[in-house]
């Protein structure tokens, strides 16, 4: 699905150069259920953004379905992402003054899905994450855990083949976290959805079939769980 | 320090009325180290905002140092908060285009502390939370856990008597979380700082001397730990 070859990412902030990712080599295969772990600032979000083609590497290659994305202009890349990827951001990135329902529908409206079923689908997804009763709340008037779950529902509206989730249970209590991970697990097993998620919690990492460990921008550990 | 008497908070969102807090009776005493726990949407952030006088109740009384805040106009209340309280928001609420250092200094500049030491104090606080090397980064260019720690440092700049922290370890790995809780514990024990924090993690709640449990807007459990 996505392959990284010798990927590096350097951010420049005034005079400071941050080597956020160093020589990342990684293949995400169809049907994978992969957790990325590591300390704060180790490059997890950076890795996830590059895997999801939200950001381009400073060097190295990113290959999506056998196509090197270097050859794609930003507009084509955005189109590919919108159609096939679902992204759950660490900060949720909801539109504050839109309702929960409108936020969930937005990616479908952007992809010009004008069919009647979109509003019902958005309601069903909010129900799936347990906040259907907040559908008409503006995002800015939701609790932290409710905002997080709107972000999850939104990532699913276009039926993505790849879900990239940055700390999807960060604001959730253990019960809501377990429900969410069970939902992701069933999407992976029953829909064949490929899922890569970042977490700093070991119990949440344990749901995955593969584990990638980051430290100071390096992938220092890469395992496959034998069930 | 802060006392709530029969406090209720109702939010109106279009036609939906949310009873976020119901008959909350609670006293926070000087030197307390208190954790607030409960499921997503149970009213934790609402309770914390009312304790910190960032929001007024729909009914009931809020008494700070024996003064009912009903008699204080918003400007006087803001002044009291700025001088004595330190707040760590669930969403951090940093100014995106200001640097980490500027964000930390901001509450002191608002209180018109023009002394030379403010920049050094801000550097020391960033060092205390382990991100001194990101002092010149704009907030929007920091990782999630780095933003959280800037929010912590900012809450400490005016040497508050009461710290209200909404999920202060939410974006942090276990090592950084433990360091932060040890910092709060030492502020409580050595500086006599009163601390109230929200968390959804049991291990983080265990640092506290008192536990308040919320469910559907009610305080359903209230304990004091015997050391
Ligand atoms: N846009 C940016 N400009 C400059 N530096 C950045 C930018 N984004 C991230 N960084 C820096 O790169 C490093 C890696 O950031 P990243 O967000 O990938 O970390 P992370 O592992 O997701 O951390 P966390 O667990 O705290 O979210 C951090 O030290 C951060 O300060
Ligand atoms: N400004 C608001 N307007 C309308 N409803 C609100 C507002 N703020 C919160 N709510 C609602 O009140 C309830 C309690 O919110 P609160 O933020 O206190 O929950 P919480 O316990 O902090 O949840 P979480 O753990 O998810 O952060 C939620 O169901 C939320 O939708
Ligand atoms: Mg991150
Ligand atoms: Mg909250």
Strand/helix succession of chain A? EEEHEEHEHHHEHEHEE
Report how far the terminal alpha carbons of chain A are from each other: 23 Å
Looking at the chains present, what oligomeric state does this protein adopt?
homodimer
Main structural class of chain A: alpha/beta
- Taking pLDDT < 50 over at least 5 consecutive residues as the criterion, the unreliable ranges of chain A are none
* Total beta strands of chain A: 10
* Relative strand content of chain A: 25-35%
Biggest sheet record of chain A: 6 strands, mixed
Residue share in helix of chain A = 25-40%
Mean pLDDT of chain A: 95
Largest interface: A-B, 34 and 34 residues
Overall outline of chain A: globular
Number of helices of chain A: 7
Cα Rg of chain A = 17 Å
User: Looking across the biggest beta sheet of chain A, what order are the strands in?
Assistant: 6-7-8-3-9-10
Secondary-structure topology with pairs:
Two copies of one chain form a homodimer.
Chain A: E1 2-13, E2 16-28, E3 33-37, H1 44-51, E4 59-64, E5 67-68, H2 74-84, E6 85-88, H3 100-110, H4 117-128, H5 144-156, E7 162-166, H6 174-190, E8 194-198, H7 202-205, E9 210-215, E10 218-224
Parallel strand pairs in A: 3-8, 3-9, 6-7, 7-8
Antiparallel strand pairs in A: 1-2, 1-4, 4-5, 9-10
Features:
homodimer; 227 residues; alpha/beta; 6-stranded mixed beta sheet; 4-stranded antiparallel beta sheet; 7 helices; 10 strands; 33% helix; globular; binds adenosine-5'-triphosphate; binds magnesium ion
Structure report:
- Two copies of one chain form a homodimer.
- Chain A is 33% helix and 29% strand.
- With 227 residues, the first copy, chain A, is an alpha/beta fold.
- In chain A, strand 7 (162-166), helix 6 (174-190) and strand 8 form a beta-alpha-beta unit.
- The longest helix of chain A is centred in the C-terminal third of the chain and has 17 residues, at 174-190.
- The radius of gyration of chain A is 17 Å and the shape is globular.
- The two termini of chain A are 23 Å apart.
- The mean pLDDT of chain A is 95.
- Bound molecules: adenosine-5'-triphosphate (2 copies) and magnesium ion (2 copies).
- One magnesium ion (MG) binds next to helix 1 of chain B.
- One magnesium ion binds next to helix 1 of chain A.
């Amino acid at each position: 699905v996505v392959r990284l070859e010798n990927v590096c990412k350097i951010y420049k902030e005034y005079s400071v150069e941050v080597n956020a990712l160093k020589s990342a080599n990684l293949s995400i295969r169809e049907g994978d259920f992969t957790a990325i772990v590591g300390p704060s600032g180790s490059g997890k979000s950076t890795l996830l953004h590059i895997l999801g083609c939200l950001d381009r590497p400073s060097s190295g290659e990113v290959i999506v379905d056998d196509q090197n994305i270097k050859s794609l202009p930003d507009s084509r890349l955005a189109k590919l992402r919108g159609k096939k990827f679902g992204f759950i951001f660490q900060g949720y990135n909801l539109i504050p003054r839109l309702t929960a329902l409108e936020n969930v529908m937005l990616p479908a409206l952007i992809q010009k899905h004008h069919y009647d079923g979109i509003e019902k689908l958005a309601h069903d997804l909010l129900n799936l994450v347990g906040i259907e009763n907040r559908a008409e709340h503006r995002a800015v008037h939701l609790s932290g855990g409710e905002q997080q779950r709107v972000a999850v529902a939104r990532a699913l509206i276009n039926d993505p083949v790849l879900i990239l989730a940055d700390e999807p249970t960060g604001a959730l209590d253990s019960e809501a976290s377990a429900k969410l991970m069970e939902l992701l697990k069933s999407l992976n097993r029953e829909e064949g959805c490929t899922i890569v998620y970042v977490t700093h919690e070991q119990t949440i990492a344990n749901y995955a079939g593969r584990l990638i460990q980051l430290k100071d921008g390096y992938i220092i550990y890469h395992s496959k769980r034998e069930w």
